[in-house]
Write a structure and sequence with these properties.
This protein has about 525 residues and is α+β, with helices and mostly antiparallel strands. The chain folds into three domains: about 5-70, DNA Methylphosphotriester Repair Domain; about 80-145 and about 150-200, Orthogonal Bundle (Arc Repressor Mutant, subunit A), CATH 1.10.10.60; about 205-505, Hypothetical protein, domain 2 (Endonuclease III, domain 1), CATH 1.10.340. The protein is built from 23 helices and twelve strands. The chain starts with a helix and ends in a 14-residue tail after the last helix.
Length: about 525
């Protein structure tokens, strides 16, 4: 997109929100960068420069617009579509890996030298991993300043800055204000009648914010899918709000996600996060966005799938349908294995027993994101690979499933624990499929399902899925796997979204081949 500046300028003139996050507009006469849909008057073409990331604009010396808040746009959908090293690096940076392990750790995970990685990322997005991480830290600091009463020193370290001075300097450079000034302005905005500020605060560790998404967005398509498969003790869906626990690098979190009550095509999701360690805020937000597929480009998906006359009615009816993601690849893979050849309720029951057996009870009472229904309380974290492998060895009788499936779970837990299978945000989808298929009891269906949801592969396809085949037959499409696979070639590179539309036709509790809980 940025390679065609004239097209960028036309998008900025039209205030088209679909391009928010794809690129950023920097104004040389004011030193400010904005999102394309900024309501301010579009400057003359000679005064505009275009950058692929907010970090690149910041690196060039521009500061964020306080009116359109470009740092709060949806992420570029390009990084979900691509599987090359730069896209994988961008996903890991978004997950906070640079703050935890540095650029050297990022390069090590991707199998590149630090110098190589810096060169590749800079050539692609206009700046290096450190600047990208710095931009993310500034966004985290702004959220904490506007939504909590934490001291500025605590905000600085929670956001990942090495010192308070570094935080102050970054905030001044990017937002043209001090941390205290940002907090004061946010409180004044919230106090104004009819205010629609991006975030609203509560207690110091209970953070409420809005997760921006691209329109059209059908929240029921993903929240309903997750709610039907909600794992007792870990997840619940009550009154249109989805709640769950998260295991994070520095601790754990409880999150509540729901669409605004007004309107059927919201531009954001309401989120409440209760964190045991505020350093995990950026990671928790990134994983919630992945879970709900908020960075997708629904217009591009709908345009491609409408080309199939059989799919067109489904796409027209639900243009904002999303593909549900996952907050943890290992959890998803375990639930996919457990769900093989059983109904969704049956898989939930078995997986719930595994949680009680090997999961960690939450160390604090459920607050903030709690469900008012005690029967739907979030009480546990999903088991770690080490805990599940140990339980499989010590308590094989507790795994109420065929022996082959127990062996598959034990092999999966061991492979993830020892690094033979990698399912983090930077994993290569093709390599993940290969490594999963090498494990006993895991076939192509499970490998495709995990790639689709854990790595957000938009082109995964399970032609043998019984739910997909039944929906295809109902639409007059071929329902044998070979013919369905051939038909699916028309839907590339959005076959995952085609499956989401087909699944939307069927009952979520039907018995399907490998249908995951």
């Amino acid at each position: 997109m940025v390679e065609d500046p004239e097209r960028c300028y036309q998008a900025a003139l039209s205030k088209d929100a679909r391009f928010d996050g794809w690129f950023f507009c920097a104004v040389t006469s004011t030193g400010i960068y904005c999102r394309p849909s900024c309501p301010a008057r579009t400057p003359a073409r000679a005064n505009l420069r275009f950058y692929p990331t907010a970090a690149a604009a910041q690196q060039a010396g521009f500061r964020a617009c306080l009116r359109c808040r470009p740092d709060a746009t949806p992420g570029s959908p390009e990084w979900n579509v691509r599987a090359d090293v730069v896209a994988r690096a961008m996903r890991l940076i978004r997950d906070g890996i640079v703050d935890r392990e540095g650029v050297a750790g990022l390069a090590r995970r991707l199998g590149y030298s630090t110098r190589q990685l810096n060169r590749l990322v800079t050539a692609e997005v206009g700046t290096g991993p450190l600047a990208l991480a710095r931009a993310q830290r500034s966004q985290t600091a702004r959220i904490l300043l506007e939504t909590t009463d934490l001291a500025v020193a605590h905000v600085a370290f929670a956001a990942g800055f090495a010192s308070v001075r570094q935080c102050n300097d970054t905030v001044r450079q990017i937002f043209a204000d001090t941390p205290t000034g940002l907090r004061t302005r946010a409180r004044a905005t919230k106090a104004a009648p009819g205010s629609r500020g991006e975030a609203a605060g509560s207690s110091p560790q209970a953070i409420r914010l809005r997760l921006a998404c691209r329109r059209p967005f059908d929240p029921a398509s993903v929240l309903g899918f997750l709610g039907t498969r909600a794992l007792p003790g870990v997840e619940s869906l009550e009154g249109g709000t989805y709640r769950r626990s998260l295991r994070l690098p520095h601790g754990h979190a409880l999150v509540a996600l729901g669409a605004p009550e007004q309107g059927h095509d919201p531009a954001h999701v309401e989120a409440e996060l209760v964190l045991s360690d505020l350093r995990d805020l950026a990671t928790a937000v990134a994983r919630c966005r992945q879970l709900l597929d908020l960075d997708a480009d629904p217009v591009a998906v709908a345009d491609a799938l409408r080309g199939d006359a059989r799919l067109r009615p489904l796409v027209v009816r639900h243009p904002g349908r999303r593909v549900p993601g996952a907050v943890d690849g290992f959890e998803l893979a375990v639930r996919a294995v457990v769900g093989q050849q059983v109904s969704v309720p049956g898989a939930r029951t078995v997986a719930g027993r595994l949680v009680l057996l090997a999961g960690d009870p939450l160390p604090v009472p459920l607050t903030g994101a709690a469900s008012p229904d005690p029967g739907a309380a979030i009480t546990h974290l999903f088991p770690t690979p080490a805990a599940l492998a140990e339980s499989a060895t010590r308590h094989p009788g507790a795994f109420a499933m065929p022996a082959g499936r127990r062996r598959a779970l034990a092999a999966l837990a061991g492979a993830v624990e020892h690094g033979d299978v990698v399912m983090d945000a930077g994993a290569d989808p093709l390599e993940l499929r290969r490594s999963l298929l090498r494990l006993p009891g895991i076939g192509p269906w499970t490998a495709e399902y995990v790639a689709m949801r854990a790595l957000r592969d938009p082109d995964a396809f399970m032609a043998t899925d019984l739910g997909i085949r039944r929906a295809a037959a109902a639409l007059g499409l071929p329902d044998d796997p070979a013919s369905l696979l051939a038909r699916g070639e028309r839907w590339r590179p959005w076959r995952s979204y085609a499956m989401a539309h087909l699944w939307g036709l069927g009952s979520p509790t039907r018995r399907t081949k490998g249908r995951a809980a």
